[in-house]
Write a structure and sequence with these properties.
- There is one protein chain.
- This protein is 38% helix and 16% strand.
- It is α/β, with parallel strands linked by helices.
- It folds into 3 domains: 3-155 and 335-348, 3-Layer(aba) Sandwich (Rossmann fold); 158-184 and 223-330, 2-Layer Sandwich (Dihydrodipicolinate Reductase, domain 2), CATH 3.30.360; 360-452, Antifreeze-like/N-acetylneuraminic acid synthase C-terminal domain (Type Iii Antifreeze Protein Isoform Hplc 12, Alpha-Beta Complex), CATH 3.90.1210.10.
- Strands 3-2-1-4-5-6 form a 6-stranded parallel β-sheet, sandwiched between helices. The protein has a 4-stranded mixed β-sheet with strand order 8-7-9-10. A two-stranded antiparallel sheet has the order 11-13.
- Strand 1, helix 2 (26-35) and strand 2 form a beta-alpha-beta unit.
- Helix 6 (107-119) packs parallel to helix 7, helix 6 crosses helix 17 (432-452) and helix 7 packs parallel to helix 12.
Length: 453
């Protein structure tokens, strides 16, 4: 509750926290517009392979041109301005920078950036949840060994869900389920960049005026992003995905205690202590009343009859038994809230969510009948979507993680809805991301076997 006062003291005694940003897309833009007026944060540099795009993001988010006109890092540090570069390596290796924000959304590139940041003694805020759910447990261990913080991004839904889970456990409730809302129908699993705008209902005028990436929006729609974020939550909290993955049941905020409890007591869950998504659409396509499309939730159970009595006395919305309650946040503000992660890492040495194990994974699933010789086109594309699975099932299937399903050529056919495995593709074993993923699978397969013994 005292992050702001800690930041004030830090700024008065040592100057603002020095930050480097890699990637200048929507999330970074939302952070940059807040950082502009946050005295406790100095954005020393912004790195993007498209420098004009990065400068355009700064201009669009309210930065006066003189604030990002530095000719190099030395000038930026001296004058409190920002240097825009196309070199992420130059940014990461600047000794004065304390925190790196990885905001590219590319799991292969992001993995390399995280390793470089950790090895250079930087705290790393992994906005790139695509990389986090694929190799985060290994990156977290590497960061801990190096004495730096590896953190989820506050403002993004996984970190906010982890915060709610932590609250529940701290005050003594049993966690039943945690998750977020989204717009979902089963047919969306097979959406492509060609069909995505019809599902969203955006007009041509809207698409012409905004920064709309069809693959990114399609990832939100086809269930991939939900699987990615719930895998990250599972790995950060110890909650275990259901064997079936995600059901996406329709539910409004008043339905949470009823829907997100076990089937044995009238709910929708096949496992207690799990993650699940609340669809904002009923299966007939109508909108759910008081939906949670932009928000996050946790459901929990009281342990004593007296706590049940207190629920009733203080107006807690419960299921019919009075024992299951919920807490929700109706929306998240994404990059606008990212300063919490930065301050927490530097001033407290704490992550706003971080993997503590490998419990959830996102397996590559065919959107259509795939043929040998086809090339997978990754998240939000035409060939595959990501499906959530418990880690042990992913390992048993030898599943290819969705984060690596970009640019890999198939060696054999895979039927629609089938899991794409490592044996199905010609993997590039020289990629750092592939090597670290192999390390994760090897280490956790051994750990799981030792537990079973």
């Amino acid at each position: 509750m005292n992050l702001y006062s800690l930041m004030q003291k830090r700024t008065a005694t040592q100057g603002p926290i020095r930050v480097g940003v890699i990637g200048a897309g929507k999330f970074a833009s939302m952070f940059l517009t807040q950082a502009l007026n946050t005295e406790g944060i100095h954005v020393v540099g912004v790195a993007d392979i498209d420098v004009p795009k990065a400068k355009g993001a700064l201009q669009r988010t309210g930065w006066p041109a003189e604030r990002y006109a530095a000719s190099g890092f030395a000038e930026a540090l001296r004058n409190g301005t920002t240097f825009v570069t196309d070199s992420s390596v130059d940014l990461i290796t600047q000794p004065q920078i304390e925190v790196i924000l990885e905001v590219t959304g590319n799991p292969i590139v992001g993995t390399a950036h995280a390793v470089q940041s950790i090895d250079n003694g930087k705290h790393i805020i992994m906005v790139n949840v695509e990389a986090d759910c694929m190799v985060g447990p290994i990156l977290q261990r590497r960061a801990e060994a190096a004495g730096v913080v590896y953190s989820m991004a506050y403002g993004d839904q996984p970190a906010l869900i982890c915060e709610m889970v932590d609250w529940c456990r701290t005050v003594g409730f049993d966690i039943v389920a945690a998750g977020k809302g989204t717009k979902y129908l089963p047919e969306y699993n097979y959406s492509t960049p060609d069909t995505v705008w019809n599902y969203y209902g955006f007009s041509d005028e809207q698409l012409a005026s905004g920064d709309f990436n069809p693959k990114m929006f399609n990832s939100f729609l086809d269930g991939t992003k939900s699987a990615i974020e719930m895998a990250a939550v599972a790995n950060g909290t110890g909650l275990i995905p259901q064997d079936e993955g995600l059901f996406f049941p329709p539910a409004g905020v008043d339905d949470l205690p009823n829907v997100y409890r076990e089937k044995s007591v009238g709910g929708m869950l096949t496992r207690r202590g799990t993650v699940e998504i609340a669809s904002s659409l009923n299966r007939d396509g109508t909108e759910v009343d008081r939906d949670l499309r932009w928000g996050v939730y946790v459901t929990f159970e009281a342990k004593t009859d007296y706590a049940v009595q207190c629920f009733a006395e203080y107006g807690v919305k419960t299921d019919p038994t009075g024992r299951y309650g919920s807490l929700y946040r109706p929306y998240h503000m994404i990059g606008l809230e990212l300063g919490v992660s930065i301050a927490s890492a530097v001033l407290r040495g704490e992550a706003t969510g971080s993997p503590t194990g490998f419990r959830g994974d996102v397996v590559t699933t065919a959107k259509k009948n795939l043929k040998a010789g086809e090339v997978l086109d990754g998240e939000g594309g035409y060939t595959a979507f990501g499906k959530l699975a418990p880690a042990h099932i992913s390992l048993e299937r030898n599943a290819l993680p969705l984060g690596l399903a970009h640019g890999m050529k198939l060696k054999r056919d895979v039927p629609k809805d089938g899991t794409v495995t490592w044996d199905d593709v010609d993997a590039d074993e020289t990629l750092l991301a592939v090597q670290i993923r192999r390390q994760l699978e090897s280490e956790f397969r051994s750990e799981m076997l030792s537990v079973q013994r």
